[in-house]
Amino acid sequence: MVPTYNERANITNLIKSIHKSAPSAQVLIVDDSSPDGTFKEVQELMKKDKRLHLLLRDRSIKGRGWAGRDGFVKALAMGANLVVEMDGDLSHQPKFIPALVAPLLKGEADVVIGSRYVPGGKDMDRPFHRQLTSNLAKLYLKLVLSLRAADPTSGFRAFTKTTLQTIRVETLKARDPFTVSEILFRCYRLGLRVKEVPIEFVDRTQGTSKLALPTLLKYLGKALLLRLGLGFE
Ligand SMILES: Nc1nc2c(ncn2[C@@H]2O[C@H](COP(=O)(O)OP(=O)(O)OP(=O)(O)O)[C@@H](O)[C@H]2O)c(=O)[nH]1
Ligand SMILES: [Mg+2]
């Protein structure tokens, strides 16, 4: 399940690469009517690939969080037993998918995080101020939401069907990328088994980033609201 917004430059390579690493996987692209026509690219590929699916959402309700939520719901409706979520900008490399789902298949975990910060994992080279922001955000999430994972903000993760049902994925609130923390918060609170496996994160080379500092500050507030059981979004 891949939420996309303006990933036309990446999407074809990503889909090909997923099927190389996971030939039997059904690929669900959740696109919010990207102005760059990402979904058109997908529709074209769908003509020849029966393992490819598109959930096309209206741009007026766009958002990484809501797109992910709707994608999980759709994946369950399609009969998925395991769902992997990953970004559409090739930062998350499909070659790690088998390692991500292995602990679920063995029954050793309920959620698996593709982690940049466990031994063997690798982050891209970020400027010092970005590293600092990222480390402070991690510490904050640990303190406020008790997210114990080494990489609580990784959006490359695998879930069992039961996990998605247990956290009642259809009731997720965050519209934006804060959804990644909201989901993990529910997993820990419900006592699910979270495992981390190493991934190497690569910087996007095509398309543009959507994360800005004001957004990050907003997330800190949302984490507090979530912890206090108050509504947000
Ligand atoms: N459907 C949908 N997908 C989104 C939206 N915003 C972001 N995405 C996708 O969510 C994934 C993560 O977004 P990115 O822009 O890569 O965020 P990031 O990794 O923090 O930032 P980068 O530095 O650009 O990599 C990508 O596949 C985006 O295309 C949205 O509003 N709707
Ligand atoms: Mg990215």
Model description:
The longest helix has 18 residues, at 128-145. The chain has one domain (2-226): Alpha-Beta Complex (Spore Coat Polysaccharide Biosynthesis Protein SpsA, Chain A), CATH 3.90.550. It is 41% helix and 13% strand. The protein has 233 residues and is of the alpha/beta class. Strands 4-6-5-7 form a 4-stranded mixed β-sheet, with helices on both faces. A 3-stranded parallel β-sheet has the order 1-2-3, sandwiched between helices. The chain has helices at 8-21, 38-46, 64-77, 97-105, 128-145, 161-166, 179-189, 213-227, and strands at residues 2-4, 27-31, 52-56, 82-85, 111-115, 157-160, 194-198. The model has no long low-confidence stretch (mean pLDDT 94). Guanosine-5'-triphosphate (GTP) is lined by residues 3-5, 7, 30-32, 62-64, 67, 87-89, 91, 204, 209-211.
What is the architecture at the second tier of CATH?
A: Alpha-Beta Complex
Q: Would you report the number of β strands?
A: 7
Largest sheet, if any?
A: 4 strands, mixed
Spatial gap, N to C terminus? 23 Å
- Which fold name fills CATH's third level, the topology? Spore Coat Polysaccharide Biosynthesis Protein SpsA, Chain A
Distinct ligands = guanosine-5'-triphosphate, magnesium ion
Oligomeric nature of the chains: single chain
- As laid out across the biggest beta sheet, the strand order is 4-6-5-7
Low-confidence stretches: none
The CATH homologous superfamily is named Spore Coat Polysaccharide Biosynthesis Protein SpsA, Chain A
CATH level 1 name:
Alpha Beta
SS-derived structural category: alpha/beta
Overall tally of domains:
1
Q: C-alpha Rg, in Å?
A: 17 Å
